[in-house]
Automatic annotation (TrEMBL):
Species per Swiss-Prot/TrEMBL record: Methylobacterium pseudosasicola
Keyword Protein biosynthesis: no
Signal peptide as annotated in the record: 1-22
Region (Disordered): 27-58, 379-407
Domain of life: Bacteria
NCBIfam families, alphabetized: PRK12798.1-3
Lineage: Bacteria, Pseudomonadati, Pseudomonadota, Alphaproteobacteria, Hyphomicrobiales
Identification of the protein by name: Chemotaxis protein MotC
Keywords assigned: Signal
Biased composition range(s): Low complexity: 27-52
Keyword Lyase: no
Length: 427
């Protein structure tokens, strides 16, 4: 076992500018910072790129791409060092692929590895080389052409070449890369097939960055399709297994938006599912996601979701903390859209300590105060104004109100044009 570990590390050190972190937990800023000391002599890298003498080195495209995948799996586990290393390693592998001797590409396994490399963030350069008109035709040529079309954004051509490929006949790593591409090409027109493809990818590539990406995509496809039971199961799976992924932050932002669109406060079943998902997180992470959901709900015009999420966040916030201030802001921004809570919400907004808010929330506070001022003018307006003039002025004020987002669409269109000018002045 020790010998195998040494071999694996040797492969990584032969291609990486520094060792890949072994710790699956996210590193602190200090741990991730570049070290001033030089690496030990045993870990020093050659100053020139590896040669393309693959027979002598017993190395080639397959081994290089495996090394990249090992690095990417560390990214899925949360290694900042691996994430920082990735562009350097990709550039180095690309150079080796482009400099490889022509006979290298007579081995179909090397062509397959090049396709995987390109679809794993490596870019199109090697595929352009392999699909030139004077290149020999192989069983992988159409796969390479399809992958190149996909990378170049030519989805129709990529679909023609890849959509009906039977991935069951392909090696596992290539099958995972092609199936993930097929899912991306079909998710809009045929989400059911895309979900089935993503299921297959997850089974083929467990514990890898490929599985992590497939899981993220499938969760959002399920949320849009309305399969709440499977959505819940996979969301919990992601939060349990990939909560430290470098891409988890992006996932949580999109996930917050997805939850607001699902309107989880609509009924008990949805709310219970939402609660089970959130309970997978540690209290601090749960608080942060509640805050993100509350802010997203304010921007998306989901009043009930904003109120519910901000209340949940407040329970987890320390008194007078910046997080508590954010939660109070989001709640007040949601409360100004109804006449019954308008005055209370206005006082809350005026009492918010903007010094505790991040810059984007200062903008939200200013937008909410501006909207509240417009609504206040409507409430104070005398009923003697002609209805047409009142409506025109109210609409102009609505358009003039500040962003960001739609601020629970323009404070519910100025609280129903200030409740139809207080029901035509309470006749």
């Amino acid at each position: 076992m020790r010998r195998l570990t040494q071999i694996a590390l040797g492969v990584l050190l032969a291609l990486c500018p520094y060792p890949v972190a072994a710790n699956p937990e996210p590193q602190t800023a200090a741990e991730a910072a570049p070290q001033a000391a030089a690496p030990p002599a045993s870990e020093a890298l050659p100053t020139t790129a590896p040669t393309a003498d693959l027979k002598d080195r017993k190395s080639g495209p397959v081994e290089w791409v495996r090394t990249l995948q090992l690095l990417q799996d560390r990214i899925a586990a949360g290694s900042l060092a691996a994430h920082k290393s990735q562009p350097i390693l990709i550039a180095r592998i690309e150079g080796d692929l482009l400099n490889a001797a022509p006979e290298v590409w007579t081995d179909r396994h090397n062509v397959q590895a090049a396709i995987v490399f390109a679809l794993s963030g490596g870019g199109p350069a090697i595929l352009r080389r392999l699909t030139k008109q004077d290149s020999p035709e192989t069983p992988e040529t159409d796969l390479a052409r399809g992958a190149l079309a996909y990378i170049d954004g030519q989805e129709a051509e990529a679909g023609r070449l890849l959509r009906n490929v039977d991935t069951a006949a392909l090696p596992t790593t290539l099958a995972g890369a092609i199936a993930l591409t097929q899912a991306a090409l079909t998710v809009t027109e045929n989400p059911v097939r895309a979900i089935a493809l993503l299921d297959r990818v997850r089974l083929l590539m467990p514990g890898t960055l490929v599985e992590e990406g497939a899981l993220r995509r499938e969760i959002f496809a399920l949320g849009q399709g309305g399969d709440l039971k499977k959505f819940e199961v996979l969301a919990i799976q992601y939060l349990r297994r990939f909560q430290h992924s470098i891409y988890a932050g992006n996932f949580r932002q999109r996930f917050a938006y997805q939850l607001t669109q699902l309107d989880f406060g609509r009924d008990e079943t949805r709310f219970a599912s939402f609660t089970r998902i959130m309970n997978e997180l540690a209290p601090e992470s749960r608080r942060d996601l509640y805050l993100l959901i509350a802010r997203t709900a304010v921007q998306a015009g989901k009043t009930n979701a904003a109120l519910m999420a901000s209340d949940k966040a407040l329970v987890l916030c320390a008194p007078e903390s910046p997080e508590a201030t954010q939660a109070q802001l989001y709640r007040a921004a949601a409360e100004i859209v109804t006449l019954a809570t308008f005055q209370t919400a206005l006082r809350k907004l005026q009492a918010v300590d903007r010094a505790k808010l991040p810059a984007h929330d200062v903008q939200l506070l200013d937008a909410a105060l501006s909207m509240a001022e417009q609504i206040g003018r409507g409430l104070a307006r005398t009923p003697a104004q002609p209805d047409a003039e009142a409506s025109k002025r109210t609409q102009a004020q609505t358009v003039a109100a500040d962003e960001p987002g739609s601020l629970i669409p323009k404070a519910e269109a100025m609280i129903g044009q200030v409740d139809q000018l207080l029901r035509k002045s309470n006749p």
